[in-house]
Specification:
- The protein is mostly helical.
- It has one domain (25-135).
- The chain is 69% helix and 0% strand.
- The protein contains five helices and no strands.
- It is elongated.
- The chain crosses the membrane at residues 37-58, 64-82.
- Residues 1-20 are annotated as: Disordered.
- Keywords: Membrane, Transmembrane, Transmembrane helix.
Length: 136
């Protein structure tokens, strides 16, 4: 569940006025946004799953409904599994999760409404805050 963040009224992103600037975010806010972006990036796995299932069924079936229905069923099952799995996956290896989100963002030109530039800034800010916390 997404927690509401109180934006700083004087610091917003220039092209995204509804988001606080990355520099003004604390570790919890950065971590939450990165977790949300990773959750969306994981859902991008549904596209190749659908294509693989539909492609393998197409070789055996000739009916359009028989070809597409198993692919749709696989997408719904995988969506349900991924929706519940992305939180524990992020908790188990946050650096790897962030690298995966950066890869998907680079290939796709961003993830949903989060630009690749903002995602890079969030990852850098997370490392900066993490380093600061370990020093203190």
């Amino acid at each position: 569940m997404i927690d509401e963040q109180e934006p700083n009224p004087n610091s917003h992103e220039q092209d995204e006025p509804y988001r606080p600037s990355v520099e003004s975010m604390n570790f919890g806010q950065v971590e939450q946004e990165l977790r949300d972006v990773f959750g969306v990036a994981v859902m991008y796995l549904l596209v190749p799953i659908f294509l693989v299932v539909t492609g393998s069924i197409t070789a055996m079936a000739s009916e359009w409904l028989v070809r597409v229905l198993p692919g749709l069923a696989a997408v719904f099952v995988c969506y349900w599994v991924l929706l519940r799995a992305f939180g524990p996956m992020y908790d188990a290896a946050p650096e790897l999760a962030i690298q995966y989100a950066l890869l998907v963002s680079r290939l796709g030109g961003g993830i949903m409404d989060t630009s690749h530039r903002r995602l890079l800034a969030l990852a850098a800010r997370r490392e900066e805050l993490k380093t600061f916390d370990t020093e203190n």
